[in-house]
Amino acid sequence: MAVVDPVGERFLYDQVGQLVVAMIDNQTLQPGDRVPSLRKLSRQLQVSVTTVMQAYGRLEEQGFIEARPQSGYYVRSRPAADPQVPRKTRPYSEPRPVAVGDTVAAILAATKQPDVVPLGIANPSPELLPVKALNRALARVAGERSLTSIDYTFPPGHAELRRQIAYRTAALGCEVGPDDVVIANGCTEALSLALSAVAKPGDVIAVESPAYFFVLEMIERLGMLALEICTDAETGMCLDTLERELDRHPVRAVVTVANFHNPVGSLMPDAAKQRLVRMLAEYQIPLIEDDIFGDLHFGDARPRIAKCYDDDGLVLTCSSFSKTLAPGFRIGWVIPGRYTDAVLKLKRTMGFSATPTQLAVAEFLRSGGYDRHLRRLRSAYRDQVQRMRYRVAQAFPEGTRITRPQGGFVLWVELPAGVDGMELFERALRRGISIAPGTLFSPTQKYRRFIRLNAGMLWNDAVCAAVDTLGELVHELAAGQATA
Questions:
Q1: CB 3.0-4.6 Å disulfide test: which of 56, 256, 291, 369 passes with 319?
Q2: pTM over 0.90
Q3: Can you tell me the distance from the alpha carbon of 206 to that of 252, in angstroms, rounded to the nearest whole number?
Q4: What is the tally of structural domains in the chain?
Q5: In terms of C-beta density within 10 A (0-12 exposed, 13-18 middle, 19 or more buried), how is residue 301 classed?
Q6: Pair 414, 273 in one domain
Q7: Contact (Cβ atoms closer than 8 angstroms) between residue 160 and residue 399
Q8: In DSSP terms, which residues pair with 65 in a beta bridge?
Q9: What are the pLDDT digits (tens) for 135-192?
Q10: Which domain does 71 fall in, by range?
Q11: Burial class for 483, CB neighbours closer than 10 Å (0-12, 13-18, 19+)
């Protein structure tokens, strides 16, 4: 058995767990088999007993093994079947006005209530973020650059921060320099800048279905029309469908979350990204790419962005550090390509981004701390997604479908027939749990049988109990439908 690498990417206990899971997957260990004892595996892998104990604890929570009193740990039978992923969506294929409603406001308000478990908003757990390191960076730039830190930083933003972002983007294979980057107040503003730069009221915007609800709110606010494109739970936007719709409708722009889509979690293959960019280049249609989850991959390699295949300047890549570093710092950016002048003009009228946080994030990136932090964060999110997915599969009724995201930290759950996600949202909120009902993610109020869950919260007893409570409520709603 291989010895784990103490300086490898994953935590030691995570490496131990992955080795045991590999033995289960290749049937070296089968259901009912006793797994190696704590001391035996500790000696074999040259790690501490505590590390093995941590690994076994996580594997038990994820459903791979079970503890038997006075006997040790055994491989448990997996659920009767790994839950299926939701089926490919089939949205209404005509441009429509957007009316998101007030549910988003209710979800946002619930996140700040101390007695509510906030599974409805895609926020990272503060305990997983580098709070002390960022505060030290903030204090350092305020002390060493006191005059600069209180002055305006005009668009396109702080030069060193733009250089660091350009460096990281170029490492993905993109020809991007600091002058190609415009700093924004988070990814939401970056997306709004991009949409406003390429389209006007009345224009048709093609979006994945389901789509991130803040993008739908932007389309609504800007007086545009949304055209829903069907989406596969594994590979993202269906490009054959998109191509047909481009011939049927005067699409002005396409918005995509190619890497770990929100809410589906899908990952568009690189070949599909290249096809998408080339297809839109033939039509001279801009592509707005939301890459906010791109750094949170569970695999070994960071997926490329669509911008890597852009030879015409038609791709506007938007992202931020809100899911990885500090949501409250509001540091986002857009790489607008040929629309740089339009984005800069819009940014000047929308307000400047805060100087201290730009300086602090630039300092943190320059120090190399970001990559070390990302390695730990990706491991934590991968673990939390696995735990929540398994718990939902155990707690929810038969017929529930759950996505298998390869990155990010959201789960898209298809409820059993007859269960209404909005009714579940209302009942759950009365029980102190916030979720995002599926209707938020469609301009035509589709997905009534869906919910989105946030697995970015640090897994603990409260989160586990909240998932169990949701399962009880879904069972009640399903039973009510059966007797109706």
A1: 291
A2: no
A3: 8
A4: 3
A5: exposed
A6: no
A7: no
A8: 75
A9: 998 999 888 887 777 888 899 999 999 999 999 999 999 999 999 999 999 999 999 9
A10: 12-75
A11: exposed
